[in-house]
Request: fold
Amino acid sequence: MDQPDLDARIQDYYRNQFAESDRLGNRSAQGRLEFERVQELIGARIGPRSRILDVGGGTGVHAAALAERGHDVVLIDPVPDHVDTARRHGTFVAEHGDARDLRFPDSAFDAVLLFGPLYHIAARQSRIRCLREAKRVSRSGGWVFAAVIPRFASHAVNTLGRGDLLDQPYPAELVALLERGDPPATIRFPGGHFHTGEELLQELAAAGLPDAEAHAIEGANGFALEELPVVDEAIHQAALSLVRRTGHLPGIRDMSNHLMGIARVQK
Reply:
């Protein structure tokens, strides 16, 4: 996949086709589950008043929540409209930037978030470059949090309930998705690559971040909640409880809308 063409698709998708500011809000019950789980995984590890770089932070939903908790947050995003919206929060710095080439000095942050860049980049070496940049700008003892979309989640979304894609022999683009993580050319989402949990850990290790962990963010419940506008509190808490107990298990963790790699930086 040609990355410049993919970058252009990303700009068009987030400007004209998809409202990122709604994704973690009222679009579906999955958004609340994702938001709370991400904040939980971060909050359990970082110290008070941490300096945080949110790379690919979109419209600032996570940045705003972290800033409200007293952290010093800088958000960068490649989509100008996202940056403009993020700046309206007024509680953190938001600027245009690219995960592959961070302008910040070495060891400038206590934690770096990569929630978006890795699944929008096709080439493995470019994804590793993003992770190396995240490590570079993190202090020793700091944290890198990196989200990806599991290829099994993408396969489910693109096949279940859609018999038109299940021709025989099995469509080559779906075989490529399962074998290599290549996004199908027919989908609107500008995906560059979809991971397995093991592959995410391998890329973190290749970037100098060994001994990382991989955790499901939503778990298998996320697929169901994606289809519901709201759920009662008991269902939401049950979904959180299940992913907390099973989201670290190999194989099971891949049955989720998103995975998070978590690495402690050692220099």
Notes: The CA atoms of residues 118 and 161 lie 28 Å apart. The radius of gyration is 18 Å. DSSP finds eleven helices and seven strands in the chain.
